[in-house]
C-alpha cells in the first residue's frame, strides 16, 4: 500500500531494540581478546566455548560502561540485579544458551529526546527507555556456496566463535506512539542520537558496518481511533541509519496491505534486504516464556553501590545534546548551519578541530566541503577518513600563516589521506610550501613579463587588471606555490606602475 494511504488508515507503533558491542579489551565473561577481524576461532577459550567445568566471571569495565550509558539515558540504576540464562539453540551459540538479563535489568525507566526536522520546523520526541541490560554476543555464521549468503541455497555453513562472548548492551525502548508519518524519521533520529551518545561516552566505536551497533526494528499498526496495538513484526540486525528508516517505512506499507486485504499480520522476525529496501520472513517470534529464563547459577548478583553510581554520574562527559546547544551559542550558528553539521555527522570532528586551534568557521569549511566530498567519493563515513582533527587544524594554520594556499592545502590533504604522514611531512616531501620571498619570486616574475610583452605593455598603459594574466603565468611557473599577492606587487613594481 502507498505510504500516505497506509498512514491515513493506520497509526504506527514502534519499538527499537538496539545492541551495542562494547569496546572492552576482553570478553564479557572471560579474558579472551575482542580484536575485530582476527583470524577465525583464534580468540576463544574454554569459558566462551562453554567447555565442561569452565566458569564465567563478570567483566568489570563492561559493568561500568553499562551504568554510564544508563545514567546518560536518564535511567534508574538497580541496586541489585542478576544474570539469567536465555535458552535457545543456534549453531553460533556455544552454550546453547545466552547469558543475559531478564526481569532484573541493570538500568531501567529512562528516556532520550530526539529532534526531527519537518517543513514546519524542528519537532522533538521523547523516546522512553524500558531497560538497558548486559549480555554476551553470539558467534558469527557464514553460509557458503549459495547466491545470497543466507542459509537457504547454501552448500555448507561455517562458524567463527571469536565474537561469541563479546560484551553487549541491549537498549530496549517502550512502545513509541503518536509519530504518524514521521515514524521512519523518528526511528532514524533515535538510533542516530543513541549512537552519538555511546560514542561520546567512549564505550564503543558504534560502527554499524562492523556490527558493533545493530538495531532490531519492531513495527505494528492499529486502525485510526483504535486503542489496542496490532501484531508486531521484528526486523532483525538492521545495520545502517538509512536502513532503519527504510525498514520502518516498508513494514508500515506491508502491514497496511495485509490488514487492508483482510489478512492477519504474523508475529515473526524478518530480515532487511539492502538491495530492495524490503524485508523477508525469517522465523516465528518467540515470547519470553519460550526462552525458559532462569537465574544463572554460575554468576553472583551485581550490586553497584550508590556511591559508585554517583561517582560515575559525576564523571560523565558533555553529552551530544548539551554539546550542540553550547556550540550553537559559542559559534553563533544559525539553525541551518547547526543542522548541516549534524546531518553531515561532523559536529564532533569540527569541535575537536576547534579544540586543536582552528577557528570554527575554518574548521566547518574544511570538514563540510573538502573532506565531506572525499568521504562521499570513497563511500565511507566522514569519521572514517584517515585524517585527524588535529591534522586538519594544522592545515588551517598553515593556510592562515601564508605557508599554503587553499589549492596547496588540498594537495596536502591528498597526501595525508594517502598515508604520506602529517601535514608538515607532506609539505616537506612534496615541496608544497608557498613561495613568497622576493628572490625566489623575482625570476618567475621577470620570465612572465618577458613571455607576455603585450600584456606587460597594457599594464604600463594603465590597465592594471591585465596584471592578473601575469600573476597567472607566475602561478603556473611555480606550480601554484607563489604568493599571488606578493607576485602581483612585484609585477607592478617591475613595470613601474602604482597598484
From TrEMBL:
The keyword Metal-binding does not apply. The keyword Transferase applies. Residues 348-495 form the Asn/Gln amidotransferase domain. GO terms for molecular function: asparaginyl-tRNA synthase (glutamine-hydrolyzing) activity; ATP binding; glutaminyl-tRNA synthase (glutamine-hydrolyzing) activity; transferase activity. SUPFAM superfamilies: GatB/YqeY motif, Glutamine synthetase/guanido kinase. Its EC number is 6.3.5.-. Keywords: ATP-binding, Ligase, Nucleotide-binding, Protein biosynthesis, Transferase. Coiled coil: none annotated. Gene3D superfamilies: 1.10.10.410. InterPro entries: Asn/Gln-tRNA_amidoTrfase_suB/E, Asn/Gln-tRNA_Trfase_suB/E_cat, Asn/Gln_amidotransferase, Asn/Gln_tRNA_amidoTrase-B-like, GatB, GatB_Yqey_C_2, Gln-tRNA_amidoTrfase_suB_CS, Gln_synth/guanido_kin_cat_dom. It is an enzyme of class 6 (ligase). GO terms for biological process: glutaminyl-tRNAGln biosynthesis via transamidation; translation. It comes from the Bacteria. It catalyses: L-glutamyl-tRNA(Gln) + L-glutamine + ATP + H2O = L-glutaminyl-tRNA(Gln) + L-glutamate + ADP + phosphate + H(+); L-aspartyl-tRNA(Asn) + L-glutamine + ATP + H2O = L-asparaginyl-tRNA(Asn) + L-glutamate + ADP + phosphate + 2 H(+). Transmembrane segments: none annotated. PANTHER family: GLUTAMYL-TRNA GLN AMIDOTRANSFERASE SUBUNIT B MITOCHONDRIAL AND PROKARYOTIC PET112-RELATED (PTHR11659), GLUTAMYL-TRNA(GLN) AMIDOTRANSFERASE SUBUNIT B, MITOCHONDRIAL (PTHR11659:SF0). HAMAP family: GatB (MF_00121). Allows the formation of correctly charged Asn-tRNA(Asn) or Gln-tRNA(Gln) through the transamidation of misacylated Asp-tRNA(Asn) or Glu-tRNA(Gln) in organisms which lack either or both of asparaginyl-tRNA or glutaminyl-tRNA synthetases. The reaction takes place in the presence of glutamine and ATP through an activated phospho-Asp-tRNA(Asn) or phospho-Glu-tRNA(Gln). Heterotrimer of A, B and C subunits. Belongs to the GatB/GatE family. GatB subfamily. This is Aspartyl/glutamyl-tRNA(Asn/Gln) amidotransferase subunit B. It comes from Marinactinospora thermotolerans DSM 45154. The gene is gatB.
